[in-house]
Amino acid sequence: MTRADTLYERLGGEPGLAGLVVRFYARILADSQLAPFFQNTSLEKLMQMQREFFGAALDGPQSYSGQALSRVHVGRGITSDDFNRFSQHLAATLEEGGVHDDDLREVIHRIAVHKNDITGEAY
User: Fold this and answer.
1) DSSP secondary structure letters along 81-108
2) How many distinct structural domains can be found in the chain?
3) Which domain range does residue 98 map to?
4) What CATH number corresponds to the domain at position 95?
5) Within-domain flag for 1
6) 10 and 103 in contact (C-beta within 8 Å)?
7) Residue 121 has what pLDDT?
């Protein structure tokens, strides 16, 4: 692959992203600290929204059709520690998938810019 490829393409495009989301949420749902946040959530809808969100964030053709992240996460009690744990699971999932270190860091960065919207905390 050339560096001209998008991050989305380097992660395997739509099939790569779909597999990433499944593996990632297997980790999240196995984490006793994070699993309760998804207790009353439709996993099918969650996976669809995450594929859209990640695709849009990683230069894919998707558009995120969900509500604003701040609205979806408000009042859920998600802390910086929860967000960091979420990000660690994402990094581990990417690493296990053989994602190049530079791309792994870029994915984490692109998700981390949304931290305040998810936690409701000031930077």
Assistant:
1) HHHHHHHHHHHHHHHHTT--HHHHHHHH
2) 1
3) 8-119
4) 1.10.490.10
5) no
6) yes
7) 78
Q: What's residue 3's pLDDT? A: 53
Cα 112 from Cα 123, distance rounded (Å)? 11
Give the integer Cα–Cα distance in Å for 30 and 88. Answer: 14
* Mean pLDDT in consecutive groups of 10 residues from the start of the chain, 123 residues: 76 96 97 94 93 95 90 89 97 97 97 93 60
Q: What is the DSSP secondary structure assignment for residue 41, as one 8-state letter?
A: S
Asked whether residue 92 is assigned to any structural domain, the reply reads yes
Token couple for 100? 């190049």
SS3 percent helix, strand, coil of the chain, rounded to 5, is 65, 0, 35
**What's the predicted TM-score (pTM) here?**
0.90
Tell whether 54 is covered by a domain: yes
